[in-house]
Amino acid sequence: LEDLNNGEALLPPDPKIRAHSRLWTDHVNRHVIPGFYRFLQEQDQGKQVEYAEELKTEISKLVDAADKNGPFFLSDKMSFVDIQIAPWVIRLNRVLKPYRGWPEPEPNTRWAKWVDAIEHNEHVQ
Description:
With 125 residues, the protein is mostly helical. The chain is built from 4 helices and no strands.
């Protein structure tokens, strides 16, 4: 969008924050997405527990790197990182919850605030 001068930029203009965002989108692609599928496809219940914990750990790393106030990754506006994680946040609730018992976010946590912001964003809906 930045290159097309159409709509709000998804990456910040500051090079340091832009690089930070790109690193965390890479984290989603390398750790969250494979972890999601590993957990979903595993048939052994013991390994399901192990893979669920791994997925939670990778999501926690992302949440820890996010802006403390949010509700999105960088601020109160959706950014490139949010675009990367949004489909997987939706799938956690729509796929992993019924098939693998994925828990709801703990109320009043940073993760719960982010999930709620994604779920209720007009563009995501």
